[in-house]
Design goal:
The chain is α/β, with parallel strands linked by helices. Helix content is 49%, strand content 17%. It contains eleven helices and ten strands. The strands form two sheets. Strands 1-2-3-5-7-10 form a six-stranded mixed β-sheet, sandwiched between helices. Strands 4-6-8-9 form a four-stranded mixed β-sheet. Strand 1 and strand 2 form a beta hairpin. It is globular and about 60 Å long.
């Protein structure tokens, strides 16, 4: 895959995908979103990739959507731009493979929204999060109003969106916006350690677990339990289930084949 605005590196079964517009603080323009869309499609099909790490080059994760591109848009053009970002982020959210955001600096506006579309967020201690759009005369447009309220609660989401305030990494962890805060120097090592741990498990079970969580959280608990039962049962049709349980009984490390 050749990109103008992204970089891609693979380490064993982990893909590291970075937004690469450091001079623009990795702001998301149309071209970058289209490249991200294509990259996710390709990584989803890549059987050698179990986990995707998403980050940004330079001192920002993503500092927002590209204001230079947005400022002259009409209402219909603005809606189409919002749809593009929301569609790409939804694809990240519901893809089978787990995605970890390594938030290495500013995650504002579209950057905060991108991080929230990932399954897990690990932030460096210098990271900053926020939805400052109301200061520009717009709402969050890449599904931020929906995911932020689901992650931190309606009242806190309204506070952050209505004020446009930024929060630091430690505050983000306290309110449930990030999973973990580490030093700037340890960020990628910590993320890769988690990614490799996830990659060592039965990948079909990981993907079924992600589906159960994502689908269940969007419905009532009774329906969610039924979804879990179905996916739990489906595990018993896999070779990995047999291998995992036999390895446990035989006191050895399992050799999962993602089948």
């Amino acid at each position: 895959m050749n990109f103008n605005n992204l970089t891609l590196e693979k380490k064993e079964n982990v893909a590291i995908l970075k937004i690469n517009r450091p001079k623009a603080l990795n702001a998301l323009n149309t071209d970058t979103l289209l490249e991200l869309d294509n990259a996710i499609d390709e990584l989803d099909k890549d059987q050698d990739v179990n986990v995707i790490v998403l980050s940004g080059e330079g001192k920002a994760f993503v500092a927002g959507a590209d204001i230079v591109e947005m400022k002259e848009k009409t209402a219909s053009e603005g809606r189409e731009f919002g749809k593009l970002g929301s569609d790409v982020f939804r694809k990240i959210e519901i893809m089978e493979k787990p995605v970890i955001a390594a938030v290495n600096g500013f995650a504002l506006g579209g950057g905060c929204e991108l991080s929230m579309a990932c399954d897990i967020r690990i932030a460096s201690e210098n990271a900053k999060f926020g939805q400052p759009e109301v200061g520009l005369g717009i709402t969050p447009g890449f599904s931020g109003t929906q995911r932020l309220s689901r992650l931190v609660g309606t009242a806190k989401a309204k506070e952050l969106i209505f004020t446009g305030d930024m929060v630091d990494a430690n505050t983000a962890e306290k309110i449930g916006l990030v999973n973990q805060v580490v030093s700037k120097e340890d960020l990628m090592n910590s993320v890769l350690e988690m990614a490799k741990k996830i990659s060592s498990k039965a990948q079909l079970a990981i993907r079924y677990s992600k589906a159960a969580i994502n689908r269940g959280i969007e419905t009532d608990i009774e329906t969610g339990i039924e979804i879990e039962k179905d996916l739990f049962g489906l595990c018993f049709s896999t070779e990995d289930q047999k291998e995992g349980m036999n390895a446990f009984i035989e006191k050895r490390k399992p050799n999962f084949k993602n089948k």
